[in-house]
Amino acid sequence: MRLYRTEAIVLCRRDFGEADRILTLYTPERGKLAAIAKGVRRVTSRQSGHVELFTYANLLLAEGRNLHVVTQAETIRPYRGLRGDLVRTTYAYHIAETTDRFVREGVGSPATFALLRDSLAALAEADDPSLAARFFELRLLDQLGYRPELHVCPVCGAALSLEGNGFSPETGGVVCPACVTSVSDAQPLPGSVFRVLRFLQSRDWAVACRLTLSPATRGVLERVMHAFVRHHLERELNSVAFMRRLRSTGGDVGGDPGSVSA
Question: Cα-atom radius of gyration of the chain, to the nearest Å?
Answer without folding.
Answer: 20
